[in-house]
Amino acid sequence: MNFRQMADQIGFSEEEFLELVGLFLESSLSELDHINTAVDEMDFKKMAMSAHSIRGAAVNLGFAEIHELAKTIEGNAGANELNGTVEAAEKIKDNLEQIVGTMVLTGRD
């Protein structure tokens, strides 16, 4: 994951981009908690709203896989379907942890 290149693609300095990524990580983890609660409560509206939030931020920052996973969750919620939602949420969490790991390895945490 090349943060400098990702920052350049959206017109930010690397420092600005990393600040945004930090906010994205924080908000996405919170939204994942909301998704997991929504799954337990079968609250498809809450699930869709949280997935939409993650999806929008992910695409704006260039995290394509997270975007696609959140899009899947949002689509499932729109269809009142849970099949694959928990797995997609777990994959999003794995991706977020990978981003954190990259930031730590490069000294940008």
Average predicted local confidence, pLDDT = 93
Q: What is CATH's topology name?
A: Four Helix Bundle (Hemerythrin (Met), subunit A)
CATH first level: Mainly Alpha
N- to C-terminal distance:
14 Å
The major beta sheet can be summarized as:
none
Shape: elongated
Helical coverage, percent range: over 70%
Low-confidence stretches: none
Q: What is the β-strand count?
A: 0
Q: CATH homologous superfamily name?
A: HPT domain
Query: What's the architecture, going by CATH?
Result: Up-down Bundle
* Count of separate DSSP helical elements: 5
Structural class: mainly alpha
Radius of gyration: 14 Å
The percent range for strand residues is: under 5%
Number of domains: 1
User: Could you spell the SSE succession in H and E letters?
Assistant: HHHHH
Secondary structure layout plus pairing:
Elements: H1 3-10, H2 14-41, H3 44-61, H4 64-78, H5 85-105
Helix pairs in contact: 1-2, 2-3, 2-5, 3-4, 4-5
Task: Quickly list its features.
109 residues, elongated, 83% helix, mainly alpha, Four Helix Bundle (Hemerythrin (Met), subunit A), 5 helices
Describe the model.
There is one protein chain. The protein has a single domain, classed as HPT domain (Four Helix Bundle (Hemerythrin (Met), subunit A)), CATH 1.20.120. The protein is elongated, with a radius of gyration of 14 Å. The longest helix is centred in the N-terminal third of the chain and has 28 residues, at 14-41. It is built from 5 helices and no strands. Helix content is 83%, strand content 0%. Helix 2 (14-41) packs antiparallel against helix 3. It has helices spanning 3-10, 14-41, 44-61, 64-78, 85-105. With 109 residues, the chain is mainly alpha-helical.
